[in-house]
Amino acid sequence: MPITTPASSFLPEVFFQEKPEGYHIKNNEDWIQLKQGNLKLHLQDMGYRSRRLEGEAMSELDCVLVHLQRRNRIRYAGPLAGHPHGPIKVNGENVLNTLKMDLIPYAPGEFPLIQRILSGLFKDQIQLDAVIGWLSIATRALYSGKIFPGQVMVLCGPPNCGKSVFQNNIVTPCLGGRATDPFMYMSGATTFNAEWFGATHLKLEDKHASPHFESRATIASHWKQIAATPNALCHKKGCDPILLSAHWRMTMSMNMEEHNIRVLPPMSDDLYEKVMLLRAYPFDMPFEAGTPEQRMAADALIAAELPAFLNYLMFYEVPLEQRCDRYGIKSFHNADIRSLLLEHSDETRLLHILLDTFAGFDGEVMGSSEWILGQCKKNVTMGSLVDSVVPGGARAMGRMLANLCRSNPDIVSLGTFRQGVKLYKVVVPEDSKV
Fold it and tell me: Mutual orientation of helices 393-407 and 369-377 as an angle, nearest 10°?
């Protein structure tokens, strides 16, 4: 029945979500989630009549509920960073963005403290250019309301050198002040990831990560998705998964010891192009931070310079030779960090085991990943290392051998198929034989 009374000439700013069933009502700049019983109280307070008059099939209030369920129906409600506040369409779905971004206004000015932090932490001008370009593209996209992908930034350096200051005091506020740790979902500890979509800064640390190849490979797949596309499957507790998008950037800070380096995902060629590898250097911070009061004062000093720094980022132009169409800036890999990755990677350790295991064989060796794994475990001198290097069994061995086919094709290469099983060929160079 159409609503014809003056009080119901318009629908209130309320949206109906089928699963989990409920309503979302605007309250100043926020949204309140209500069950139908509580919503009726709000509608009565707005003046909608709850009593059915003679000859009416339903009351005015019930008519409003029916219209809300038909016209103001949404698939999802929650914070979506980088999107307009309120009802929007994302990938063809009606959703309600409950997040109103609180972006720092940018204005001309000086930022000497931030300059000293960045120049001290990254030292080399080429690294500094990569950082500024990465930040500039991310902030300009966010402030213009555009969803644009960007590389994962990895910061490797000694403890207490300023990596966290860069992440927390510069990256997070420049990207709207919303950060979250995505590790639980990336590692498979939870199947829910809705908090990602309300954050603009996905911030990882190496202390939680696993050195096991399978875990690192899983995280690598997430990194690829984050860098390659802003679209991802959002799974909120109590809701069906839905394909949504958000404006996010990911950073990871880590120390440079071997056990820290080894938690990084396997760096295949297609992952390298999606990652910025930066070396963080120790330097004397331009402020005291030994007490909570000193740290609060330092935070305030950095925050005071953010409007000027953001203004610089908004008008910064990436040098022509550093530009690329996909991300706006080419990926940068610090040579020292890349060398450490190669030196301490599980693939390099496996290569040494393969060379030692098959040094006594004549000519080339060909077998399945399962057979090669078994031969390595029989190795008297290095067999005890196999389980720590290849903890996932034959499947993990196959993935690592595939990586070695790309990185060391002169030693490991793809052979033939035998009865549907992929075979790998291992050739031990003469100078590696005892």
Answer: 100
Residue 91 lies in a domain: no
Q: Is residue 79 part of a domain?
A: no
> 363: domain CATH number?
1.10.10
User: 315-325 burial, b if ≥16 CB within 10 A, otherwise e?
Assistant: eeebeeeeeee
Determine the pLDDT at residue 396: 86
Cα–Cα distances in angstroms (integers) from residue 246 to residues 3, 84, 92, 183, 318, in the given order: 38, 11, 15, 18, 24
Instruction: Establish if 292 belongs to a structural domain.
Output: yes
What pLDDT, in 10s, does the model give residues 160-191? Answer: 899 999 999 999 999 999 999 998 888 888 89
Closest CA to 17 of 88, 82, 99, 94: 94
**pLDDT, tens only, 141-159:** 999 999 999 999 999 999 9
Closest CA to 342 of 427, 408, 405: 408
- 70: tokens are 């038909």
Residue 205 pLDDT: 80
Going by their DSSP bridges, the two strands 73-74 and 22-27 should be labelled as: unpaired
Residue 199 confidence (pLDDT) above 60: yes
Domain boundary residue among 342, 376, 405?
342
The average pLDDT across 379-389 equals 83
pTM above 0.85?
Answer: no
Taking CA atoms, 159 is separated from 32, 53, 85, 162, 305, in Å, by 43, 73, 39, 8, 25
Domain count for the chain: 3
38 and 24 within one domain: yes
Last residue of a domain, one of 305, 327, 342: 342
User: Rounded to an integer, what distance in angstroms lies between the CA atom of residue 120 and that of residue 125?
Assistant: 11
Structural domain including 367 reads: 345-432
Residue 394 in any domain: the answer is yes
Whether residue 20 is found in the same domain as residue 67: yes
